[in-house]
Design the sequence.
């Protein structure tokens, strides 16, 4: 029987593949309810010139396009590092069952020169009533 640690080792191997191809060291795989690997990928943000080309986000998109809701809910994503905020948001919307990661975001940021990305200042809500009226129209149907 394949264990969480075995699948995480595959995610780590994919992160090594990412480095070999000129990208940051992140890899992920999606395992179905029966333990079969459904899809896997690694970071391609540099070679694709796409800041969103993280493996977690790519696999969440793949799952949304290829799995029914029941199957998606039974999956596990294994990833070499805790998903960033962008990927975590996609995973929350994806309907996947769970995520297991090998190292935390804090651990990877401690390895980066400069400690990672700086937060972008954010302001709001500035027009909550106007925006709520539009959103309410969508959600009432």
Sequence:
């Amino acid at each position: 029987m394949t264990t969480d640690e075995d699948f995480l080792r595959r995610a780590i191997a994919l992160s090594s593949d990412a480095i070999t191809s000129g990208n940051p060291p992140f890899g992920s795989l999606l395992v179905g309810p029966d333990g079969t690997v459904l899809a896997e990928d690694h970071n391609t943000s540099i070679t694709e010139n796409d800041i969103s080309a993280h493996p977690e986000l790519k696999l969440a998109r793949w799952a949304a396009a290829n799995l029914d809701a029941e199957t998606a809910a039974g999956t596990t994503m294994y990833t070499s590092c805790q998903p960033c905020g962008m990927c975590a948001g996609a995973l929350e919307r994806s309907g996947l069952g769970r995520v297991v990661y090998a190292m935390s975001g804090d651990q990877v940021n401690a390895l980066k020169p400069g400690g990672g990305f700086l937060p972008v200042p954010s302001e709001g809500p500035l027009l909550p009533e106007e925006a709520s009226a539009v959103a309410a129209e969508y959600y009432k149907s």
